[in-house]
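Lab notebook: predicted structure, single chain.

Context: the supervisor wants predicted structures on file for every construct in the current expression panel, including those that have not yet been purified. This is the next one on the list. No modifications to the sequence; it matches the entry in the shared construct table.
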Amino acid sequence: MPGAGSGAPGSPDGLDRLWTPHRMAYIKGGSPAQGCPFDRAPHLPDEESLVVARGKVVYAVLNLYPYNLGHLLICPYRHVADYTDLTDEETVEVASFTQEAMRTVRRVSGAHGFNIGLNQGSVAGAGIAAHLHQHVVPRFGGDANFMPIVGQTKVLPQLLTDTRVLLAEAWGDS
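Prediction complete. Output recorded below exactly as produced.
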């Protein structure tokens, strides 16, 4: 086939594509038509928004596009983009919620480790750069199996709504 593998536009490269045009608003630094999802979530019922726990100035919510089962986001209620702009109270509660998220996920799922981090700004990979959120991603021995590597597919063994119930019920039991 002419041009195959040549790097020419449209030439086959052996990779499957998942088209997600709804994410273009995030990439361009805008927000989706419904506004900032992290501003909207705290005003919805927990079951609908997937909020797991609420604090005084931050809340924990399941990621709609999880890397692994139990992938939580710790978000300030206040719409703030930069970590250096958090108040002292917000900084402390982000840290304590991160610790509680780890304890809770370990109790519920037996996670072996965690990736924790902030993608500060769109160039650093933040999908929603306008509203700071810290990722708490549970890791399990063997979670980088053949499916994502060979099959280009992530397998999650539980519905997000079921995960939310388990985590919400266990939150604060430490």
